[in-house]
Specification:
alpha/beta; Aspartate Aminotransferase, domain 1; Aspartate Aminotransferase, domain 2; 7-stranded mixed β-sheet; 4-stranded mixed β-sheet; 15 helices; 37% helix
Length: 458
């Protein structure tokens, strides 16, 4: 049966509850219904084409309908779609684990599969607490996060990445976490330290934030299990790019105070920042690392949490000792997801994609220069193919727009009418194209952003 666009919209609004969506506004809108895709474009039910400027929520790598990944999934479907990893194993999961171990930081030796970024981080948080429990230190059950951090929307992930706008109703559910300030230089306030353009350098902001982190570690070193960080870029906070050296110093402090370091590479992993993993920019080896999104090329739900041999060994022993990690998901190590991931990794190698992202990021940076002088562009932040364009009502004072106006949404709606799909984070316009997007499409996308921003009025 073929449905008209009007019928699909009616049925959607009758039945579906959308994520991160004010549903009162949604019910009054005429949503775009995606029916197909090709290359870098999404195609709606009326045949209109849109550049996928958000990589279908930061996960698409090689574009849509990639022949090699399509074929790998079809081939795996001809064998088995899914089987449990509780008490069994599977060929795709094994082969993928072997491939991944050749890519991740060298100290990581074990992988625990799951199906989303939030599950990957939740696993890491549980692992570090049980690690210390198994080591005879059950009092070490607290975590350190960073202000503006985001690690997902399950209870543990919300606890460590507590975002007021998203999570306020759930605060009573969340466990205790210590928060260090993030080096958000553009809007940094605290103890007289100012960010860029306000008389203090990134180094001053970095020094302040690291000092606060060290104070937490020093005071609570007997109870802290781990520090969790989104390395190099804090994505959901508005593409906050950390000053050079910040991650390396966080690693040093974690080592100095004998706490584990969790790197949440869900958004930054698999080439997004111009390295296979963001930790590589500063030569950092975390004790645990979480990945998802780009792991399967953006095709199927698949995630992984990596751990060192030291962490893994703490879970060994007779079953009666209770050291088992009692955690799992129905679709852990799903065969089709693993097949898609293997095909994606083949394409990374074939197309030298990470090096290409690094090269094209320089081209993209040149395109973005033309936006920086616009009246309502406060700051443009970029690392690789992660871009945040922060909009302000007054550039001189950095005064934000009234949140009730939803300027970011307004701008992205206008950009969509120009044939590009982008999604804002508040009043930060996020540009996160598939890694394989070519320079011509990048130019079309940035031109659409610039044209819409030139029409923006306070």
């Amino acid at each position: 049966m073929t449905y008209t666009t009007a019928e699909l919209r009616r049925l959607d609004q009758q039945h579906i509850w959308h994520p991160f969506t004010p549903m009162s506004l949604w019910l009054e809108s005429e949503p775009v219904v995606i029916r197909a895709a090709e290359g870098m474009h999404l195609i709606d039910s009326d045949g209109n084409r849109y550049l996928d400027g958000v990589s279908s929520l930061w996960c698409n790598v090689h574009g849509h309908r990639v022949p090699e990944i399509d074929a790998a999934i079809r081939e795996q479907l001809g064998k088995v779609a899914h089987s449990t990893m509780l008490g069994l194993t599977s060929e795709p999961a094994i082969v993928l684990a072997d491939r991944l171990m050749k890519l991740v930081p060298g100290n990581l030796k074990k992988v625990f599969y799951s199906d989303s970024g939030a599950t990957a981080t939740e696993i890491a948080f549980k692992l570090v607490v049980q690690y210390w429990y198994n080591k005879g230190r059950p009092e070490r059950n607290e975590l350190v996060g960073f202000a503006e951090g985001y690690h997902g929307d399950t209870v543990g992930a919300m606890s460590v990445g507590r975002t007021t706008a998203f999570h306020r109703p759930y605060f009573p559910l969340l466990f205790k976490v210590h928060y260090a300030p993030s080096p958000y230089a553009y809007r940094f306030e605290g103890s007289g330290v100012r960010g860029q353009g306000s008389g203090r350098s990134d180094e001053g902001v970095t020094e302040y934030c690291l000092g606060k982190l060290e104070g937490i570690l020093r005071e609570h070193r007997r109870t802290i299990a781990a520090v969790a960080i989104e390395p190099v870029v804090q994505g959901a906070a508005g593409m906050i790019v950390q000053p050079a050296g910040f991650l390396r110093e966080v690693r040093r402090l974690a080592t100095q105070y004998d706490v584990l370091l969790i790197a949440d590479e869900v958004a930054t992993g698999f080439g997004r920042t111009g390295r296979m993993f963001a930790c590589e920019h500063e030569g950092v080896q975390p004790d645990l690392m979480c990945v998802a999104k780009g792991l399967s090329g953006g095709y199927l739900p698949l995630a992984a949490t990596f751990a060192t041999q030291q962490v893994f060994d703490a879970f060994l022993g007779e079953a009666s000792t209770g050291r088992t990690f009692f955690h799992g998901h129905t679709y852990t190590g799903n065969a089709m997801g693993c097949a898609a991931a293997l095909a994606s990794l083949d394409l990374f190698e074939k197309n030298d994609l990470v090096r290409e992202v690094e090269r094209k990021a320089g081209v993209l940076s040149g395109m973005l220069e033309g936006l920086k002088g616009l009246k309502h562009v406060g700051e443009v932040r970029q690392k690789g193919f992660m871009v945040g364009i922060e909009l302000v009502a007054d550039k001189a004072t950095k005064r934000p727009f009234d949140a009730a106006r939803r300027v970011g949404h307004e701008v992205c709606a206008g950009i969509r009418r120009r044939g590009v799909i982008l999604r804002p984070l508040g009043d930060v316009i996020v540009v996160m194209p598939p890694l394989a997007m070519g320079e011509e499409d990048l130019r079309v996308m940035i031109d659409a952003v610039g044209a819409e921003l030139r029409e923006l009025r306070a």
